[in-house]
Amino acid sequence: MTVRLSKATPTPRGWPDVFGLAIRLGDRFDLLVTSSSPRPLLRHLFLPARGPATFYSSLAAYRDRRDRRVYLGARVDPGARSATLAVASRFGRWVPVARVLFGRRLSRRVDRRLAFNPVRHALPGLTPASWIHRLRDPVYRGSQHGRSGRGR
Question: pLDDT by residue (tens digit) across 88-97?
């Protein structure tokens, strides 16, 4: 498993920013969540935080194997050494499903080569269920292209 915590912009430490949490399970499945709120009406919004120890949401729904719409969430613990993963319905409570322990920091070289895409590499049993996901795929590919330097 590979985990990346990132910021949207290079703000100074402690300043509000939108954070991202990316998790690769094995070498095939990606989960990406963004700093947000656990509250039902706010879990669809990018919300800045002062550090990575905050709540994260998929913002858009997935369909599970029973054809229910679910949202993915995570809470990174203080110290950013682990996260609790959870699922919720549109207005339901978050139900913890897994705990992820963070390990050693990856080298910059390895980190630069990582390319996450939760639309093309969705978790088994979860299908992107929102029009937002159709927009996300080209955005992820464009971002990865620009980050690799090939877009310059």
Answer: 998 999 999 9
